[in-house]
Amino acid sequence: KAKELGRNTCAFFQEDMQSTSDARLQMEKSLHRALKEDEFEVYYQPQNNDKGDIIGAEVLLRWKDHDRGFISPMEFIPVAEEIGLIHDIGRIVLQKSTEQVATWRQQGLWQDSWKISINVSPMQFAHANLLDYVIEALDKSGLPAELVDIEITETVLMSDLDSALAKMEQLRDLGISLSVDDFGTGYSSLKYLKDLPIDRLKIDQSFVRDLINDKDDYAIVLAVIAMANALSLNVLAEGVETLEHFQQLQLMGCYSYQGYYFSRPVCATEFEKYCKSHFETEVI
Ligand code: C2E
Ligand code: MG
Ligand code: MG
Ligand code: MG
């Protein structure tokens, strides 16, 4: 009986593995099709200051698969990286978002003081063509580089520091600013903050979530804000979900914010509405 059970367990296990790799192959196929058939869309999530005014937006990639509907970037970006599609996808994100922001700017909707923040994964950052793709997007859209911010993670700094540094400087020379995304979740040395051409730290949402109740999270957020201020770096809190978060962070010396409290990431049309309703409240 035990033998039988053992065999069954084994059979279940294999079946499970099989369906996992089938799903994976299916996703790889779908990603290739998505790229060819332009199934990627970029969403925008506003970033706001103490007064709630818009100071920019983060570009967040959305993919609506034929069969599965919306798939999280956390799920498909690692796959796109493994099969090498991330570079073409990143190029599309750069083109679509800069073109959209350039259009909004011409319409008077997007202010020159606002930044569009674009995520670049460590693998994208290391790729030889990244700078070309950035320049291409700026040229095609006509968007000034000063309006563009690139979000990198601490991991970028850990692999090949010299070439990462060189690339960061090239981007800065173009006029682009650099943010460190998910700050506090990686293993980078504090020394980097002093030496590298970084403009802003984005405090990871995992520290913000329980900020009110967890004294350790509170201490970490307070320390990061103080350190950023002391090093003359900008600082933004991610994952600001409630008025309580917003008020607490203000008291702690933070001055820029992003999160569901202000808005979820939304499609271009919804973002336009957000901006317009925002201007109206500002006038009143
Ligand atoms: P991220 O860059 O840290 O982006 C912030 C994530 O937090 C987004 O998830 C956003 O929807 C979510 N978020 C924003 N406000 C809140 C909040 O108040 N509460 C909570 N719980 N979540 C909030 P999303 O859109 O699913 O993206 C996940 C990750 O996928 C991003 O994390 C980024 O690492 C990656 N990603 C998204 N778009 C791109 C892209 O175009 N290129 C690359 N390389 N990575 C991307
Ligand atoms: Mg980001
Ligand atoms: Mg983040
Ligand atoms: Mg994240």
Describe the model:
Keywords: Membrane, Transmembrane, Transmembrane helix. It comes from Marinomonas ostreistagni. The chain has 12 helices and 9 strands. Strands 1, 2, 3, 4, 5, 6, 7, 8 and 9 form a 9-stranded mixed beta sheet that branches. The termini are far apart. The model has no long low-confidence stretch (mean pLDDT about 90). Helices cover about 55% and strands about 20% of the residues. Helix 3 packs parallel to helix 5. The chain has about 280 residues and is an alpha/beta fold. It is globular. The longest helix has about 35 residues. Ligand C2E binds next to strand 2, helix 2, helix 3 and strand 6.
Q: Which parts are unreliable, with pLDDT below 50 for 5 consecutive residues or more?
A: none
Indicate the mean pLDDT: 92
Bound chemical compounds:
ligand C2E, magnesium ion
* Rg, alpha carbons: 21 Å
Q: Into which percent range does the helicity of residues fall?
A: 40-55%
Q: What does the main sheet amount to?
A: 9 strands, mixed
- Report the order of strands and helices: HEEEHHEHHEHHEHEHHEHEH
Q: Helical region count?
A: 12
Please state the structural category: alpha/beta
> Quick one: how many beta strands?
9
The dominant shape is globular
Organism: Marinomonas ostreistagni
Protein name: EAL domain-containing protein
Architecture blueprint of SSEs:
Blueprint: H1 2-36, E1 40-49, E2 54-65, E3 69-71, H2 73-82, H3 86-106, E4 115-119, H4 122-126, H5 130-141, E5 148-153, H6 154-158, H7 161-174, E6 177-183, H8 190-195, E7 200-203, H9 205-208, H10 215-230, E8 234-237, H11 243-251, E9 256-257, H12 268-283
Parallel strand pairs: 2-4, 4-5, 5-6, 6-7, 7-8
Antiparallel strand pairs: 1-2, 1-9, 2-3
The chain binds ligand C2E and magnesium ion (3 copies).
Domain EAL: 24-279
Protein name: EAL domain-containing protein
